Amino acid sequence: MRNKNHSDFLLIGHACYDVTPDGYVLGGTVSFASQAALRMGKSVGVLTSVENGFKFQKEFEAIDLVIVPSAQNTIFENVYSSKGRTQYLHQKAKNITKEDLPERWKNIPLVLLCPIADEVDFQLLQSFPNALVAACPQGWMRQWNADKKVFPKN
Questions:
Q1: How many other CB atoms are there within 10 angstroms of residue 74's CB atom?
Q2: Which of 17, 36, 77, 110 has the fewest beta carbons under 10 Å from its own?
Q3: Whole-angstrom Cα distance, residue 104 to residue 5?
Q4: Using alpha carbons only, what angle is made at residue 47 by residues 44 and 52, rounded to the nearest 5 degrees?
Q5: What is the pLDDT of residue 4?
Q6: Is 30 helix (H, G, I), strand (E, B) or coil?
Q7: Considering only CA atoms, which of 125, 133, 127 is closest in space to residue 109?
Q8: Which of 20, 44, 22, 31 is nearest to 109 (CA)?
């Protein structure tokens, strides 16, 4: 049995809703990478931001989950056409900062920063002096306009 209160792998970023023709599905790097880590026998912690009543919270039952409360969830939609994919960010949950990091995770050995909507503060990179810290930087490389269309940052 995994100890949910003693994690050896921490993931930080938004769990989100992805819009599909059939409704919402679970999205976000923290969602998929945390499940993969569990299957590999890791004790996993996730620091995320979602609204109360997040539809997929049950997917995180075996995980030490810390939620930064938000009035809304992050919601992405991908629209495909003959010209390729157009991505939209319909809503964004709260940003995650070093102040949101529980004390018990400051000496964790392995950390993966997983921003999907520029929500993970860069100061978190320096918050784990004894850890191997990695990042999936896609969310730091995105921006969006007033029409909610996502495009690369310069």
A1: 27
A2: 36
A3: 9
A4: 115
A5: 56
A6: helix
A7: 133
A8: 44
Tokens of 70: 């938000």
pLDDT, tens only, 19-74? 999 999 999 999 999 999 999 999 999 999 999 999 999 999 999 999 999 999 99
Decide: 133 and 113 in contact? Cβ < 8 Å. Answer: yes
* pLDDT tens digits, 67-105: 999 999 999 999 999 999 999 999 999 999 999 999 999
DSSP summary character for residue 145: -
Tokens representing residue 113 in the block: 């920063």
Could you tell me where the beta strands, DSSP code E, fall in the chain? 9-12, 16-20, 23-27, 44-51, 64-70, 74-81, 84-91, 110-113, 132-135, 142-144, 150-152
Task: Return the pLDDT at 154.
Answer: 86
Q: In the β-sheet with 64-70, what is the strand arrangement from edge to edge?
A: 64-70, 44-51, 9-12, 110-113, 132-135
Radius of gyration of the chain (CA): 15
